[in-house]
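Internal ticket - ligand job 731, dioxothiomolybdenum(VI) ion:
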Amino acid sequence: MSPQPQAAVGAPLSRVEGRLKVTGQAKYAAEHDIGGVVHAVVVDSSVARGRITGIDARAALAQPGVLKVITHLNAPRLAYRDNPVSLAPRGGRRLRVFQDDRVQFFGQPVAVVVATTLEAAQHAADLVEITYDVEKPSTDLTDSPADEPQTYARGNAEQALGSAGVRLEMSYRLSRNHHNPMEPHATIARWDGDRLRVWDKTQWVIGVQHELAAVFGIPAESVRVISPFVGGAFGSALRTWPHVIVAALAAREVGRPVKLALTRRQMYFSVGYRPAYEYKLRLGSDRRGRVTAMVHELKHETSRYERFWEANLVLGQMLYAVPNVSQLVRTVSLDVSTPLWMRGPGYSSAAFCIESAMDDLAYELGIDPIELRLRNEPDEDPSNGRPFSTRRLRECFREGAREFGWHRRNPKPRSTRDGDWLIGTGVATGCYDVWRGQAQAYARIDADGTAVVESATHDAGPGTYTSMTQVAADALGLEVRHVEFRLGDSTMPPAPPQGASQTMASVGSAVQDTSDKLRTQAIKLAVEDEGSPLHGVNADDVVVSGGRLQVKGDPARGETYQQLLARNNGTHLIARGSYNPGAESRFSMYGYAAMFAEVAVDARLGLVRVRRMLGVYDAGRIISPKLADSQAIGGMVGGIGMALLEHTVTDHRDGRIVNANLADYLVPVNADIPDLKAIYLDGRDDEADPIGVKSLGELVQIGVAPAIANAVFHATGRRVRDLPITAEALL
Ligand code: MOS
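stdout (structure tokens):
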């Protein structure tokens, strides 16, 4: 097989679906036009723990247009089979909607009203009277007992700490964050006999398919899930949440298609969040800045019914060449809903603590923070001794320092002023795993020379429509405008969840394989066809460019896909292909980032403004540079939110979420966002996957918050170890 010319991959394309989005033609979950649809509105519990003692739905049912009020008193018992195709924490017991009188968290769905109009359903939902036998909830991470720990150890960290030349001890507290995508979660469900079709906001159509099948006790083949457009998710759409089940249940009960869209307020109740953390870190180093020991003690919140897990120990094990490490992580089971992965899950939280601590150590020793990190660069993965596939963190820092003007700074804290503003700069390392999963794809070339490529993947924002089109276009030798990539339908060839930054590597490699097979098939047809100008040519000497099969080095000799198909009376050619990462790699594979931030802190008011940020990424090959930039900028914006603004507030007296709206839950807006710049190291990682990419999706968020915290320290001399960093903390 001759390598194909790469014309589309690496080109700064705009989103191929951009026009559909800006003209309102892209259909999000609640926007699909389904005939005969009626509306469901969820009633949420107003207590965090207890039992429902009574439900009075008479006033609601008396409203015109109301079809049904479903509660645990009249809902059918559902199968709730175990579902192995799920991202639910193992060993827990997922929330079962309307199956009993138990209330396990504030905002739990306790009833649903179905009506012919949304307005009727909303009004009737307000009229449902529910009484509770209330128990005192525990929702405070600080004051509640922890579950049994998970631990990791290498070397003897306590001993090494005892003999270290420099010892530091830090405590961090990270607030709960909610994903807050622009598009709220929504589901439309329709039963056709015993077959269920669902239009859903999801990062995993196959996951929703299997969960609905398990809950309703029907075969997975009877469930089809459609999700062509997702208005942001950041992890919140990786699980099949209770409202999806409610929509399908309501549709079955009223015998009509049902639309259920969560309100913005309900987006804070049962669709996941980044858990609050408490993180104690002790660090030992020699005087030259070689870290000899790290002791990590973490705890984070989870629900009582599921033991949430995220990868919060990885960075502590592999980021730096620390010989002695001990880690202990405990969940604290509370009367809250179950958390879920959010933007760089686990890694973001751990990176804030570790990278803040490295900054403290740099000041303690009088070593430049970048130099300190370079002194602790490992030659191999210190957690398992494996070679890195690629690890170019040094280059990230070198390139970033030059671009950012790092060495112009006065290292002394509180040394730079601009009027009333204290100016500071900070750095931090970002790092995220290279996840890959099994994926399949389908491709077809039609008689008109255009191609369709499909995989049951998703585009929650990273630009999957575009990047997959680019990969397919080059492998098929077609112009981008002649390739249509389709996704978001569980009947398509299966793909993994769009999470853990695995889509480009996994689905991209499947698309490449599929497109290679299709091109090879066309070439074979041509070289064996006596009527083709390519007859008798060695197939390995044929490339396809601009839709034309031609001899490499002799482009005049060839023909188009259209000519080939027409002469063979063909309407189309199809191929199926796949990617399977196979057995565990002998390499350690991660993406890396050097994050730089400059902040200004109002010396009198404590107000923090980010002035500029730069990210330099070692993410392997960049398929779609413009969308990589979009992702990187989004990651920096999210990181600014985590660092300075985002904070879900719970009233621990009754477990109520106090700021369940976008006016009181602060997220960055345009006025908070300065000049952000992203740079990618040129290159590829051929150990990671066939198309040479590493992960980018989560990487861009990790390291942002500590870079900002470190800049705040440089500006003010004040170390803030609680997130978000507030004005109060700086006064
Ligand atoms: Mo990402 S938090 O795995 O959507």
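Auto-summary: Residues 203, 234-235, 238, 341-343, 345, 499-500, 698 surround dioxothiomolybdenum(VI) ion (CB under 6 Å). The CA atoms of residues 366 and 538 lie 65 Å apart.
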